[in-house]
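Page 47, continued from p. 46.
Same chain as before, 103 aa.
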Amino acid sequence: MGRVLSSLEERVKGGRRSFEEETEPVAEQQEKLAKDHDRLKKKEAHVKVFVFHFLSTVSILVRITFQLGCCLVQLLMETAYIQPPVDQLGDGLLDIRPAFVNY
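Result:
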C-alpha cells in the first residue's frame, strides 16, 4: 500500500511526465512479470510431475492391497475347516470338513 501511495504522491508532485519517461518503468515491470511468469510455469511443471507420481503411487498401493486381500481370502478358504463341538466327538472318527465349498 505504501508503494502505491508514494507513487501517487510522486505523480501529483512531479506533474505530468512525458511518454518516454513512463515507458521505461513499464518495460521494467513487463520484464519482471515475464520472469515471474516463467518461474511460475516451472513450478507448475514440477507440481504436475509430483501429482502424477503421487497418483500413480496411490494406484499401485491400491492394486497391491487388493492383491494381498485376494491372497488372504484364498488362503483362508483353503485352510479353514469345521470341527464338530467337543461334546459331540465321541469315540468315532473326527468329522473334519472344509469350511468353504466351491461348486
